[in-house]
Amino acid sequence: TAAARAASSKREMVAGLAQAARAARVASVRAGVARRGLATGPNGLMDASAVTKALEKSELEGWTAIDEGLAIKKTYEFSDFVTAFGFMSRTALVAEKMDHHPEWFNVYNKVDVRLTTHDASGVTDKDLTLASRMNEFAKSA
After folding, report:
1. For an engineered disulfide with 125, which of 11, 32, 51, 134 has Cβ 3.0 to 4.6 Å away?
2. 24 pLDDT more than 70
3. 117: closest CA among 19, 42, 63, 37?
4. Relative orientation angle of helices 2-35 and 125-139, to the nearest 10 degrees
């Protein structure tokens, strides 16, 4: 029927748009990693040595590679709960704009953060960018 053909065509169009958006995100991640002078694999995925090299930069102070370089982590400690929560709120706004959300855990004045790019199954420029922004927010908290 005409309705079934229209629905099928709409599904194909949406799938095509999703694929184009995914390709654009991958290209953006690869460009960001290339700007940092790091090697990447599929989907902008960084190998463990590239992650270690990236974490040596001053804007990523305190971050460490975990899970054989598939993620990075850091624990922040603030003066009190309100300051910790303010840091998380500032981070949440940036993370939402990036469409890249941290795994984190908060107890009183401490915030444990783990970053990885689930689409790429490892660390990408998105993680490094968010980690750098989080360090900025923590310094001004």
Report:
1. 32
2. no
3. 42
4. 60
Strand order in the sheet with 71-77: 64-66, 71-77, 110-115, 103-107
d(CA 63, CA 113): 9
- Residue 71's closest CA among 92, 48, 94? 48
Closest to 124 (Cα-Cα) out of 60, 19, 18, 47? 47
| No. of helices (H) and no. of strands (E), the chain | 4, 4
For 96-132, how does the pLDDT look when each residue is reduced to its tens digit (9 = 90+)? 999 889 999 999 999 999 999 888 788 888 899 999 9
